[in-house]
Amino acid sequence: MCSSDLRTRQESAQSTWVAAGALFLPTVDAALSASRGRTQAGTPVAQVRQASLQTSWELDFFGANQAARRYAGSQKTSAAAAMRATVLSVSADIAQRYYEARYCTEASRLLSEEATSWQRSQGIVASMLKAGAASSVTAAGMQASAADGQRRANQQAAACALQEQALSALTGIPVASLHTQLQQAGTLSDLRAFSVQELPASVLARRPDVVIAEQDFSGSIAQADAARAQRLPRISLSGNIGRQQILTGNDQLSGSVFSVGPVQISVPVFNGGQRDAQVKAADARLDEARIAYAARIRQALAEVNQALIQLNSSLDTLQQIRFNQQAASLSLQTTTARLQQGMASQLEMEEARRQHANSQLEQLQARLERNRAWLGLYRAVGGGISDTGATGPHSTSPQS
User: Fold this and answer.
1) What share of the chain is helix, strand, coil (3-state, %, to 5)?
2) Residue 187 to residue 122: CA distance in whole angstroms
């Protein structure tokens, strides 16, 4: 559902809620009348002018109007939750696209460095082949590896262009400006490097889909109450007050007039079972809404638990890959030192560089999955949450 439809739904629900509130108040109408004529033979012509206020008021003894007001309130809250669900979804999509674009930019840089390293290795092996220090099979294999490295770099660059186009479409930022900002953004950071084992059940109450299901259930209760109220008497009171002027010949009579009543009681007697059928239909809708509400809560619990599992698993993976990255960094430092001492070849140096780049790429992928896991939890709990009574970090809202 697009934002304009949601906005229209909100405005409609607000109008219905206001109209339902007006049922508790009396209605007041102004009336002006004038007449001229002779009502009996032999009497002079009379002119009658009157201005009055007429009022009517339904006394809601049996709660029909209160039920209508509750139903309108549930629809108003549901419309607001639907709008918040859209905002939540768009925000999470933009955040995910942003992190993926950041990952893509850094991955493209690493793969470009790796492709350059393969080309240097290919040049070294080509020189060794000319000197008779390498076989043609080794040279062909190195050439294939260099071509494959360049292919991966080109594919990553194309993927980055697509990511930037998608992010530009979501944010409205021109692609050229977005590309510059991503290039200057630096290293992709981690979102909240700590684990979350459990969350209070109350966070589910703020999920838009749970709110909508809850309001559907509440509205169904109100509709059932309203259907039952239709089988009960309706009591209304009316009256008017005004100013009247009567002109008869040379005589003039004016003064205030008023009336209170009648008090009208309408009692349903026979309608062919229509109202009973309406009550049964309302009860059926109530049962359906109750089942849907319970199912939505179960689904929300499952999604939160799955998000917590993925979040904690992503942290374990990231920590393990960091160990591998540290080992690759140490290997690169050792190989560099050995090369300076003449104890390692240039081919070994390039291999160490590629291993280091691959370890950085793995760590970058793990960071992206970590950020995706946080966004998954953000979606599952219906947005950012905070608990002022908790110790330590307590917010799960995404940060850039």
Assistant:
1) 65, 15, 20
2) 30
